[in-house]
């Protein structure tokens, strides 16, 4: 977990043990959720389209970020540095991949470009290159004699400033970019939907509801990063103002919500209609028909029309 070194200073041994448990449990959930999306991408060839490939890279970054959060809290040595830097690298990569997804939707829907797949090498250079540069800069001000039991953040004013600039600065930049981008995409598609409804009869209005429901979910995507890191940001600012006074409940919220970022991303970005449809198709092929007859209606596989996603309509069809 990114924040644990700074959080642990000024807390009792019992508090630190509790925070460790919260971090390990939440990171395990994120690891499982992200790993599920990675596994789906590997197993289901139908999902290997460009739009979901970006989700795969996001899930992979989340999975590795969560893994290094679970590894533990080594007190000294090179392993501690490796754990801290690896966690920083993959967590930064995670929120940078969300900006590539937002950019892809904007370029496809708003600008009507069909060349997004050609930009994949640039996306990799942008995400992994930026993550590496920020991780290297993060080493500035690091004091190896004050590692303590956590390996994420540096001690001292200079180290705290560098950590804030190399993580929270880019993080909130990504949040603002995603929010502005999704606002433009949603506004344009809402306008297009209203025009389509105005030119169609009432039966077509009913058919458009699943797509509008999927569209409205996009507005919640920027809230994932805000919900995951708002308490961490507040905690870091408080640490600047009162470094000797730690607020335990704020530290709990900080650790818990940040460690759940991978789980939130896997649910919002990964577990969409395409994934559910692929799973249902495999279950239908493996399970006898008599099994499906006994299942409730909401558990039975639905048709592709019922499971439509605007991502598929607007991005994948243009590949």
TrEMBL record:
NADP is among the record's keywords: no
Hydrolase among keywords: no
GO terms under cellular component: plasma membrane
InterPro entries found in the cross-reference section: GCR1-cAMP_receptor (IPR022343), GPCR_2-like_7TM (IPR017981), GPCR_GCR1_put (IPR022340)
GO MF annotations, alphabetized: G protein-coupled receptor activity
Subcellular location: Membrane
Domain G-protein coupled receptors family 2 profile: 19-273
Key words of the record: G-protein coupled receptor, Membrane, Receptor, Transducer, Transmembrane, Transmembrane helix
Biological processes annotated in GO: adenylate cyclase-activating G protein-coupled receptor signaling pathway; cell surface receptor signaling pathway
Coiled-coil segments on the chain, per record: none
Cross-referenced Pfam families: Dicty_CAR (PF05462)
Membrane topology: Multi-pass membrane protein
Transmembrane segments: 20-42, 54-72, 84-105, 125-141, 161-185, 218-235, 247-271
Name of this protein: G-protein coupled receptors family 2 profile 2 domain-containing protein
Taxonomy of the source species: Eukaryota, Viridiplantae, Streptophyta, Embryophyta, Tracheophyta
């Amino acid at each position: 977990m990114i924040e644990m070194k700074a959080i642990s200073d000024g807390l009792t041994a019992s508090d630190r043990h509790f925070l460790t448990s919260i971090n390990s449990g939440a990171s395990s959930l994120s690891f499982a959720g992200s790993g599920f999306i990675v596994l789906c991408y590997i197993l289901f060839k139908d999902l290997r389209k460009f739009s979901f490939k970006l989700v795969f890279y996001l899930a992979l970054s989340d999975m590795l970020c969560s893994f290094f959060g679970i590894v533990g809290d080594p007190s000294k040595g090179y392993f501690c540095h490796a754990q801290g830097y690896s966690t920083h690298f993959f967590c930064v990569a995670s929120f940078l991949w969300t900006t590539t997804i937002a950019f892809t939707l904007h370029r496809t829907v708003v600008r009507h470009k069909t060349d997004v797949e050609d930009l994949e090498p640039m996306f990799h250079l942008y995400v992994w290159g930026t993550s590496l540069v920020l991780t290297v800069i993060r080493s500035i001000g690091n004091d190896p004699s004050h590692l303590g039991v956590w390996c994420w953040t540096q001690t001292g004013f200079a180290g705290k400033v560098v950590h804030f600039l190399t993580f929270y600065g880019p993080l909130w930049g990504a949040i603002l970019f995603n929010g502005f981008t999704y606002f433009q995409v949603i506004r344009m598609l809402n306008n297009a939907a209203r025009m389509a409804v105005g030119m169609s009869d009432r039966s077509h209005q009913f058919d458009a509801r699943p797509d509008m429901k999927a569209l409205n979910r996009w507005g919640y995507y920027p809230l994932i990063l805000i919900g995951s890191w708002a308490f961490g940001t507040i905690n870091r600012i408080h640490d600047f103002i009162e470094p000797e006074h730690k607020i335990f409940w704020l530290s709990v919220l900080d650790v818990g919500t940040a460690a759940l970022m991978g789980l939130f991303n896997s649910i919002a970005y990964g577990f969409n209609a395409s994934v559910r449809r692929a799973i249902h198709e495999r279950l239908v092929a493996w399970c006898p028909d008599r099994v499906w007859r006994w299942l409730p209606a909401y558990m039975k596989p639905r048709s592709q029309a019922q499971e439509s996603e605007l991502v598929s309509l607007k991005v994948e069809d243009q590949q």
